[in-house]
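Here is one chain, start to finish.
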Amino acid sequence: MTDMLIIACVGFTTGITTVLFGFGGGFVVVPFVYQLLLRQPTLENNALHIAVATSTAVMVFNAGWASYKNFKVGKLSLSTIFPLFWFIAAGAILGSLISNFLSESLIRILFILYMIVTILDCIYSKNFFINTDKRQLSSLTTIGGGLTIGGIAALLGVGGSVMTVPLLRKHGYKMQECVSSANPLSFPVALCGTLAYTLSGWGKVPGDTFMGFINLKILLVLVAFGLIGIFVSQRYIPAINDKWHARIYVLLLILVLLSMVL
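Its structure:
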C-alpha cells in the first residue's frame, strides 16, 4: 500500500514536470521505481529494465496528452518539431534494439553519466540561462542531433526532453517553446521504446501483471495520477519567468542525478 502511494505521488509529479519542463516521466519515474523493485527478490535482477520500460510506456500517455493539449491552444510550432521528429524516431528504434544487449549495471552507469554530461552542458553553455536571438537548426544538427537524441533516450528510457530542451535553448528558443516542443519530440521515443521492451521482455519476468518488461499495475497508477498532474499544471500553475525556468530545469536534473547515485 505504501509503495502504491509513493508511485501515485511520483505519477502526479511526472504530470507536473511534463507540462512545466517537458519531462515525460523518465527522470522522475526511473529512480523511484528502480528503488522499489530492488526490494523484491523476484524482480531485483530485472529492476532497472522494468523501471526503464515502465517509464517509457508512461511517456506515451503523458507526452501524447500534453502535446494534444498544447496543439489545441496553439502552443506547438510544427516548423520546430519537424523534421527533427523523424530523425529522433529513427534513433529511438536503434536505441531500443541496442538496449537488449546491455546489462542492468551498465544501463545504470550510462544513466548516471548521461545526467552528468547533460547538467554540465547546461551549466557551461553561454546560451542556456540567457535567451538569445532565435536561429534555425542546421541540416547537420537536425540529422545528427535527432539520431543521437532518439538513440540515447530510448536506450535509457528517459525521453528526449533532456537533450531537445538544451538543443533548442542554445538556438535561442524561449524555455516555454522548448518545453512545448519537447513533449511531441519525446513521443516517438516513447512509442518505439514501449514496443521494443514489450517484445524483448516477453516471458522474462514472473507474474501476470507484466507485459514484457512493463509493469502494468505501476503503469496504470502512474498514468492516472500523471493525467491529474497535467490537469493541475495547465489550470492552476502560472507561467514561470524564462530565466528562472532554465535554472529550475537544471536544478531538477541535479536532484534526479543524486537520487539515482544514492
